[in-house]
Amino acid sequence: FGEGEKAKVERMFGLMDGFLKNDPVSLQKDILDHVEYTVGRSRFSFDDFEAYQALSHSVRDRLIERWHDTQQYFKRKDPKRLYYLSLEFLMGRSLSNSVINLGIKDQCADALNQLGFEFEVLAEQEGDAALGNGGLARLAACQMDSLATMDFPAWGYGLRYQYGLFRQVILDGFQHEQPDYWLNFGNPWEIEHLRISYAVKFYGTVEEKQLDGHHCKVWVPGETVEAVAYDNPIPGYGTRNTTNLRLWAAKPNGHYDLESFDTGDYINAVINRQRAETISSILYPDDRSYQGKELRLKQQYFFVSASVQDIIRRFKDSHRNFDQFPEKVALQLNDTHPSLAIPEVMRILVDEELVNWHNAWDIVRKIFSFTVHTVVPGGLEKIPVDLLSSLLPRHLQIIYDINFSFVEELKKRFGLDYDRLSRMSIVEEGAVKSIRMANLSLVCCHAIDGVSRIHSDILKTRVFKDFFELWPQKFQYKTNGVSQRRWIVVSNPGLCALISKWLGTDAWIRDIDLIMGLRDHVEDAELQQQWKMVRRVNKIRLAEYIEAMIGVKISPDAMFDVQIKRIHEYKRQLLNILGIIHRYDCIKNMNKSDRRNVVPRVCIIGGKAAPGYEIAKKIIKLCHAVGETINNDPDIGGLLKLVFIPDYNVSVAELVIPGSDLSQHISTAGHEASGTGNMKLLMNGCLLLATVDGSTIEIIEEIGKENMFLFGAKAHEVATLRAKGQARKVPLQFSRVVRKIRDGYFGSEVYFKSLCDSLEGSGDFYLLGNDFASYLEAQAEADKAFVDQERWTKMSILCTAGSGRFSSDRTVGEYAEKTWRIEPCRCPF
Ligand code: GP0
């Protein structure tokens, strides 16, 4: 420091008075200050929402402190960093998660109590940050939590949508979509950095120029938009480390060339500029179906370009040239959505930083890795060349150049095998010439990960078979995981305390393998008793919520059987509903004494359908129609209920999961890449009724099939079964149930016709008919087990005890070691 600087720094330290304090009185002062100076209310009169805002701002102050320390430390240490690029992050609520990770939950609760507020009530004031669709997006959120907790120098990058995933409203049993303008209520969890912004270009032409004696391509854009950074601190648990999720918002670019205003149409010129903001305005609600829309492509490039510019700027702050880039930077692509980052890095290095093509290519091949999340080839992104050439002309050239070398390499290796060349080429010829984003990623990334073992096998033997033959070493898998902080500590405090009590430590919150220590106590009647009590309290809480939301009264003595996930044909919510109709029929046909042996069930289904996915919407309607019939049938009484929980999201999941006895993961084998809901439920001691698919296969290895209810065709049988078509055997009960729907027993015969058609004969692509009998058997097994409450409770304890492998800490640890090659960098305070 110079003399003047030094005096300034000393003065700052003098004024700082140390870090913010976390005792209840200090917290109270901070909260009241924020009520008055941030929220702008009088400290003598503020309501729950205002208290929530003030509390959040107080927590945010503490996050910022740690965030600064962590970033300072990273800067000084200059470790290799990971940048996690994802178009979607499903963060849900932040308050509870933050205070728990900061270790100040009790102090906050005390502070609030004395002010006349209750922490839990304030936490309910927060809306969800729903900047994602489903599993893929929540996985990104869990991995951010693990990265911070494990002290990895990692940042997330994404888009700050103004409208999150639509809110699902049910009217007369039909799904309606309502916009989620979530920022209306303010967002205390983000820090706006108006000075951190980058220009992102679109359209225009590519010109050849001489620059500093280099021959280079210069992209002259037709439109420029500004990307502004919004930082969302991600606190680790049990560490001071606080990392960052940087989300970009689109703003009109400030450099107005006078020409565009010369037309005299001042108002329209400004309005046109203002349209830039639409780029980050809305999240596409389609789960794994590629739409080919220009706005979506703009979103992808916008967020990727800003992120790459930011990463390169940060690297250049402390390095003179790019030699060390691969030792300092790893970029992870969450699916192919961010894969334009590849040509973007090439473009900036070659066109702007004047690195020669070969060196740039060498760098690119070392820094990128990507994760695949699907098995359905139809889910893979393809960008029409026409679209790309108009929107990103320079990137198209770069992709062509990469493809040219790649095809040459293929010819050398395999000769002129044209079928193979056309399958593997990044460019797909045909009616609509397009760029295959998966192939681009496969060519340019050094590692390609599946999300479970079976998924990886399917990628290697089917979806990306050709690429596996070429580069077997690139193919790996990291079975997904979920954060025990979010899914036990935050959402199930009762179980959390019980686990810590019986393990004699809460160290499992950072070191999940310890959780298997519960196995040593599984026979202990006292633990069983307490376990049952905790679960019962959670069930009561869930029952109250259901009654408040949809007016159906349910008993906590019944078995709570849940299926919560996006609605998809392959996930087979329909199989569940058919099973319920069958159960209803059976009960109706029983005499009084037989009915006494029926295990009372509450079937709970929740999930959103993509707005344009007709069949999925019909499934929701059918669920309501069946529920209506059953729930209002006095003859059935408490033996069976079917409820649809509207607007399933992260915070609803936090309520449902701890209160579930049985959960269904019943995709047609070979279709669910991994599944992560199964892991969350498993952790919470919920038993699984499942097909042998995705990560369930690995769960079986951990807890044993005797502690689960498995059924259905295996993945390797599916193709043969499908080929049989009409000739497949279908049980009588199945046809009878479908008949009932066809005959209008649940109303709307015409509306449900296409659903029924999708179930019969060769229409039954997802093999519901084939799996129905074994599904019913598995359900009967579950009933039998539930009658023996001691046995059930033991199984439940073993589920939690066996869930350690499914922590995202394990997943992230594997990525860090094998793919990203990053080390922890713990901020020492
Ligand atoms: C997969 F392709 N997933 C996609 C997609 O577009 N969105 C999405 O959420 C899911 C998979 O279906 C999964 O099996 C997987 O576990 C998850 O991504 C995370 O890898 C559902 O849980």
Automatic annotation (TrEMBL):
Whole-protein coverage range: 161 to 989 of 989
Function: Allosteric enzyme that catalyzes the rate-limiting step in glycogen catabolism, the phosphorolytic cleavage of glycogen to produce glucose-1-phosphate, and plays a central role in maintaining cellular and organismal glucose homeostasis.
Top enzyme category: transferase
Keyword Repressor carried by entry: no
Example of a GO biological process term: glycogen catabolic process
Coiled-coil ranges from the UniProt annotation: none
Keyword terms of this UniProt record: Allosteric enzyme, Carbohydrate metabolism, Glycosyltransferase, Pyridoxal phosphate, Transferase
Catalytic reaction equation(s): [(1->4)-alpha-D-glucosyl](n) + phosphate = [(1->4)-alpha-D-glucosyl](n-1) + alpha-D-glucose 1-phosphate
EC code: 2.4.1.1
Keyword match Transferase: yes
Protein name: Alpha-1,4 glucan phosphorylase
GO terms for cellular component: cytoplasm
Cofactor names: pyridoxal 5'-phosphate
Positions carrying N6-(pyridoxal phosphate)lysine: 680
Family listed: Belongs to the glycogen phosphorylase family.
GO molecular function, one term: pyridoxal phosphate binding
